[in-house]
Amino acid sequence: MNPQPATPSSTAPKARRWFPHPALSLFLLLLWLLLANDVSVGQVVLGSILAWVIPWLTQGFWPESLRLRHPLVLIKFVLVVLWDILIANLILAVRILGPINKLQPAFMQVPLDIQHEFTITLFASTISLTPGTVSADLSLDRRYLLVHSLHVTYIDAAIAEMKQRYEAPLKEVFECSPLP
Amino acid sequence: MSVSLDSALLEGLISFFLLVGAAFALIGSIGLMRLPDFYLRLHGPAKATTLGVGGIIIGSVIFFSTQGDGLSLHELLIALFLFITAPVSCHIVAKAALHLKLEAVERTRGKPWK
Amino acid sequence: MLTTAISIAMLLLGIAIALNLWRLILGPSLPDRILALDTMYINAIALLVLFGIYQGSMLYFEAALLIAVMGFVGTVALSKYLLRGDIIE
Fold first, then answer.
1. Is the pLDDT of residue C18 over 90?
2. Which chains touch C (3 or more CB pairs under 8 A)?
3. How many contacts (CB atoms, under 8 Å) link A and B?
4. N or C: fewer beta carbons within 10 Å in chain C?
5. Residue A61 has pLDDT above 50, yes or no
6. From CA A174, how far away is CA A159, in angstroms rounded?
7. How many Å apart are CA A151 and CA A110, to the nearest integer?
8. What pLDDT is recorded for position A8?
9. pLDDT at site B7
């Protein structure tokens, strides 16, 4: 993965104003085709129009956009998360049906290296969906995430694993490229 | 497009996904019923129930895609929506519980901040 | 075979919803009840999708999607009410 060349700055702002969120537009088009359950020309045209108009009308509501740096890392991250969700559920099933008096629940304060709202949201959602942990609160200064764990033996090791497994890839994908 | 897969095998596959999904949903609800405090109960719906619906929806996609009307993927929208919203609703309910200062079981280590 | 599997799955989901209802009545706190409602609508979605397969009809998909959307909005609104004493600030 080579570092991306800088985009020419003369055309970028104008294109960005008329076409503010390419990724969101693509997502909306996909969503429309799924909703219609039909890939005919008419639906593609209608979906494309909606995918252009909706981001343009609502661009005031969106926070500044992030640029995706490493799509391959993102795909690997998604696969890891899906696999972990499956494992998480098997472990959870065993713990729920097993003896509940032996569970060792804990509140953990996870220090955050990522700062952007969107990335923190993704990180918190990932934690909620994966093994034995649910994100419960974010500190006001956005430096710590409060995580409740169903069963944990070593708190520090659990925090370190969470950061290394989920936060590091997210940071690599989104945070290295602050847009002006 | 008519799929001429071995229909017994296909039915078995669909049945497997449906049963696994329903079992996970049931396990999530058992967790909601059985665990001793609110923060523990949060874990059931956040994961098991979501995966339960996911399993049933995969079964539904396979079923309708092999009915002869072509590929049918729009059920995936429900799964996608649930996977996005389940952590969010879980987080906000937990936040409300922390705000009301609900008690956790005694053996819980660590404290939520004030 | 499929019909039997659907019947068993419906039975499991029915028990799940009954358990949720029990938690909804039992409480003991308000967030518990919100959580029970939340789980209940997710299980209802699963049940509705199952019923769609049983009937061989795709018509139930829209209803399931609507329940998903409305349930999420309801959960967030109720929690927000507990948090702030107000839904729309």
1. yes
2. B
3. 121
4. C
5. yes
6. 21
7. 16
8. 42
9. 78
- What residue ranges of chain B have pLDDT lower than 50? 1-4
Q: What angle do CA A169, A172, A174 make, to 5 degrees?
A: 105
pLDDT of B83: 86
The answer, yes or no, to whether residue A23 has pLDDT greater than 80, is: no
Tell me what percent of chain C is helix, strand and coil, each rounded to the nearest 5.
85, 0, 15
Residue C24, min C-alpha distance to chain B (Å): 10
> What is the ipTM score, two decimals?
0.84
CB burial of residue A42 (10 Å; 0-12, 13-18, 19+): exposed
Is B73 a member of any domain? yes
Task: State whether CATH 3.30.70 applies to domain A71-174.
Answer: yes
Higher-scoring residue by pLDDT: C73, A164:
C73
Could you report how far apart the first and last alpha carbons of chain A are, in Å? Answer: 23
Q: For residue B83, is it within any domain?
A: yes
Tell me the residues of B at the A interface, defined by beta carbons under 8 Å apart: 24, 27, 30-31, 34-37, 39-40, 42-44, 46-48, 50-51, 72-74, 76-77, 83-84, 86-88, 90-91, 94-95, 97-98, 104-105, 107-113
As a whole-number percent, the residues of chain C with pLDDT over 90 amount to 24
Provide DSSP, chain A. -PPPPPPPTTTHHHHHHHS--HHHHHHHHHHHHHHHT---HHHHHHHHHHHHHHHHHTGGGSPPPPPP--HHHHHHHHHHHHHHHHHHHHHHHHHHHS-GGG---EEEEEEP----HHHHHHHHHHHHHSTTEEEEEE-TTSSEEEEEESS-S-HHHHHHHHIIIIIHHHIIIIIT----
Q: Which of residues 17-46 of C touch B (CB under 8 A)?
A: 17, 19-20, 22-23, 29-32, 34-36, 38-39, 42-43, 45-46
pLDDT of residue A143: 79
Count structural domains, chain B: 1
- Name the residue ranges covered by the structural domains of chain A: 8-65, 71-174
Better-scored residue on pLDDT, C68 or A162: C68
The answer to whether residue B72 sits within a structural domain is yes
**DSSP assignment of B80-114:** HHHHHHHHHHHHHHHHHHHHTTPPPPTT-BS----
